[in-house]
Amino acid sequence: NFGIVANATYARGIRHFLEEDMGLPCVFAFSREAGVKPKNDDVREAIHTMSPLVVFGSYNERMYMAEAGSSAHGPQAQFIPASFPGAAIRRHTGTPFMGYSGATYLVQEVCNALFDALFHILPLGTDMDRAEPTPARHRTEIAWTDAAKAQLDRMVEAQPVLIRISAAKSLRDAAEHTARRRGLDAVTPDCLGTHVSGAQLEGEPA
């Protein structure tokens, strides 16, 4: 998903192109208009609460993103300059975002932003060295109750799309480990209360 804060032409045009033509959901779009005081407090709140993966905007929005910080889990929001004030030069063909060249530039920037977001959820080599080895699956499979399966599905759906596979594996392994430690014949919903590393996953209450 993405959010945009720019002049009315960009806010409407970029939202229409990315949301209607490209299928990328827009979580917020604010327009800056001449003679009208910008709603900076609303923009800050939207960035802090709606967690867009890509933000088009000015240096103001970049500062709000820095205030929000990055989650320990999940992709980090990426910034694409699209408004002033901003410490960026945009004079190359395709910028501003107008016509075919502008559309091509937009797609390129969004794709690069998504790859950058993916980079932030990949483990570093030093992190992998510190992690516990993956246990060999020499044990028999343990059953799951229907309630536990439903809870696991809800917890996985609460995660950002990019990390759902790894989140599902971590939650499943942790729950099965807990069930075996307790001597249970099947995984129950309360087994999902313990995470592998004790870290909080995105979307779960503290």
From TrEMBL:
Domain Light-independent protochlorophyllide reductase subunit B-like C-terminal: 144-191
One Pfam entry name: PCP_red
GO biological process: chlorophyll biosynthetic process; photosynthesis
Any GO MF annotation of the entry: oxidoreductase activity
Transmembrane spans: none
PANTHER family membership: LIGHT-INDEPENDENT PROTOCHLOROPHYLLIDE REDUCTASE SUBUNIT B
Protein name as annotated: Chlorophyllide reductase subunit
Organism from which the protein derives: Erythrobacter sp. MBIC3960
Phylogenetic lineage: Bacteria, Pseudomonadati, Pseudomonadota, Alphaproteobacteria, Sphingomonadales
